[in-house]
Amino acid sequence: MDDKHKLGFFGATSYVIGNIIGSVMVTWMNFFSLNKFAGRFQIVATAAKLLSCFLIIATGLYFYYVKGWTSNLRDPMKGSNYTPGDMILGFYGGLWAFSGWDVLNYSTGEIARPRKNVPLALLVGILTVTAVYVSINVAYFVALDVETVKSSNAVAA
């Protein structure tokens, strides 16, 4: 099997084993104490995601300010298509980053002072996600040239 078609160290087997382990962990959390353990797990998982995002942003800032890599930002959209269909697909792909804002109102009965806190949570959440994702994409354009960004499936929406 070609190396670029392998998933992990052991091919598809490691992917399946990872899914099984993840499913067992979620089942275990639900079995014992959903409120206590799952709440803590959610905080840890969110912190880990934000930490990895801030690491990417810090790397971009390092290359921009310390290394002086600014040439990729002079014309980052050179050769790009601006058709309405491509723009809509780009926005649609970006909506997955905002997943969760639409279900916030389902838990308003459990939120203290929901009239004040729900709009605040929506505003802070959407602004935070927007700032983080725009910063990550700018960091990608600082560290990677335009052709690499255009040809890669690994670059964020």
Automatic annotation (TrEMBL):
Annotated localization: Membrane
Topological relation to the membrane, as annotated: Multi-pass membrane protein
Record has Nucleotidyltransferase as a keyword: no
Any Gene Ontology CC annotation: membrane
UniProtKB keywords: Membrane, Transmembrane, Transmembrane helix
Transmembrane segments: 12-31, 43-65, 85-106, 118-143
InterPro entries: AA/rel_permease1, AminoAcid_Transporter
Keyword Transmembrane on entry: yes
Recorded GO MF terms: L-amino acid transmembrane transporter activity
Protein name as catalogued: Amino acid permease/ SLC12A domain-containing protein
Protein species of origin: Teladorsagia circumcincta
